[in-house]
Structure formats: C-alpha cells, structure tokens
Design goal:
Layout: H1 10-21, E1 27-33, H2 45-51, E2 60-65, H3 68-75, E3 80-88, H4 91-98, H5 102-118, E4 122-128, H6 141-153, E5 158-163, H7 170-183, E6 188-193, H8 197-209, H9 238-247, H10 256-269
Parallel strand pairs: 1-2, 2-3, 3-4, 4-5, 5-6
Helix pairs in contact: 1-2, 1-10, 3-5, 6-7, 7-8, 8-9
Length: about 270
C-alpha cells in the first residue's frame, strides 16, 4: 500500500488485513513505523495494529522500520513479532531510502537486532538491489555474499534478497540463490521480488528450484517501493506464488476460500497502482 498516493482509510486497512489473517500465511506485513513525511500512507500503523482481530490468528505480524526510534515504537506493541529493516547494496539507494550511508545503516541494524533479541522478537533484513544496481554503484553476487556475511556476524538470522526495482532475470535469481543459500545454511534466506505480471512466475520458479523456501508477495501484485528510481514495479503477486506452488504440489495448508475473498476485496477496496 505504501506507494499509493491516495490515503487508504484506516478501517479499510484493518478490514483487509483481518481478511488476510484468516488465510494462514506465516507472516503478514501490516505497516511501517517510519516518518509520515516520507511514507504518509503508513502514518496510521499504530491504529491499524490496535484494530486487528488476532483471536486464534496463526500468522505473525511484521512491521518495517528505518531507524532505532521506529524499532522502539514497534516493539511497544506485543502484537508485532518481527521487524523488517531495508538495507541496500547500493549507497545511492540507501541514502534515498533511509537517509543513511550503508555503514551507518549496518550500525542501526546491529542495534535493532540487539533490541529484537532482548524482547524475543525477530528481525528480517531486506537486502535491496540484491540482483543488480540501476544507480551505477558496484554490484556482483559476491558483493551480496559479503553483505550477508556481515549480517551473520552481527547476529542477523533472516535475510530477504530483494529485487526492489525489478531488474532480476530467472537466470540471475537462480545464480544468486545457488551461491548464497549453501554459503549460509544456518540463516533463513528468502526472496523479495518485484516484477511485471508476465515475468513473475518464471522468477518464482527459478528461486524455488534454487532452494528458496521463503517468499514475500502481495495480493494482486500490489505495491512497489516509492523510493525506487522510476515507476513502481509491483511485488510478486500472491496469486502467482500460489499458482506455482500448487503446480508442484508444494502449497502449504491455507484457507483457499479466505484467499479468494481477500483477492476480490483487494480489487474492490484498494486502488490499483
């Protein structure tokens, strides 16, 4: 939702996320504790959290933070199980996204990871520009491995390799995951891919066949990063991910009726980008 200019009413967000909770996803990203000037769409995340119906919910809730203050605000909510932090291989994009250098951002990650450990929460770090760099900064799969190693050294256990601007190809996705996954067997490494609808299936297939088992997705492929270079490239759609996993008989147990309702509700309630 963060890239949608028109403010989505808080009650609409609550209703939609409550429907997602019924499906049975492992984790649901419900908002961000970031500057409302930077991401005005997420300014009501606290209200959204208070309005969610978590009775008998199996899904864990995740929120995005960009600094220690945001992490502390998020950790005030017992409902929040996981914090997400955007770290970039690109110095240019790190400055655009969090107004910090990479060196500064890694120090913030270290501090937030400590806070999560102290409060028995989880941290996932999104490594953006994980499959290429359109800003002219250095990129290679080896550089991605170096960043992942730095995160492992400070105790981070979960990393999502992110294609924030939709530059990845199936061959690149395969190459990256076949390099990174064996190198860090004790870490949980996932895919946070952005793509056009026609490219999404092949990217999911490439990541899965390379061993990835954690995927981020959005209903209808909604979304994109408003800090990215050009027009928004949507997230991998949940429907595409489900279609692929069903085709190989690997879909985890979930409420398919609730999924269909959420998909329809997304089309009715949320403006398309």
């Amino acid at each position: 939702m963060q890239g949608i200019a028109e403010f989505i009413p808080t009650e609409t967000k609550i209703s939609y996320i409550n429907q997602l909770i019924k499906i049975g996803f492992d984790t649901i990203d419900v908002g961000s504790f970031v500057s409302p000037k930077a991401i005005p769409q997420m300014r009501d995340t606290a209200e959204v959290l208070r309005g969610l119906d978590l009775h008998q919910a199996n899904s864990k809730l995740l929120v995005i933070v960009a600094n220690v203050r945001g992490a502390l605000d998020a950790l005030d909510f017992d409902e929040v199980a996981t914090l997400g932090f955007p770290l970039s291989l690109s110095e240019t994009f790190q400055q655009r996204n969090t107004n910090k250098s990479i060196e500064e951002a890694i120090k913030v990650v270290d501090r937030i990871n400590d806070l999560c450990e102290q409060s028995y929460r989880k941290l996932v770090v999104y490594l953006s520009m994980g499959f290429g760099n359109p800003y002219g900064d250095a990129y290679s799969p080896e550089l991605l491995t170096e960043f992942t190693e730095k995160l492992q050294e400070i105790g981070v256990q979960r990393v999502a390799l992110a294609d924030t601007v939709g530059t990845a190809t199936p061959s690149m996705v395969k190459e990256v995951f076949e390099m990174v996954l064996p190198a860090f067997p004790e870490m949980e490494i996932g895919a946070h891919l952005h793509a056009t609808p026609q490219d999404a299936y092949a990217l999911v297939k490439a990541a899965y066949e390379a061993g990835c088992r954690r995927f981020d997705s959005a209903m209808g492929g909604l979304g994109g990063c408003p800090m990215a270079k050009d027009s928004l490239t949507g997230n991998i759609s949940t429907e595409t991910l489900v279609e692929y996993l069903m085709s190989i008989d690997a879909l985890p147990e979930m409420n398919m009726e609730a999924l269909a309702i959420a998909s329809e509700r997304r089309r009715i309630l949320l403006p398309s980008n």
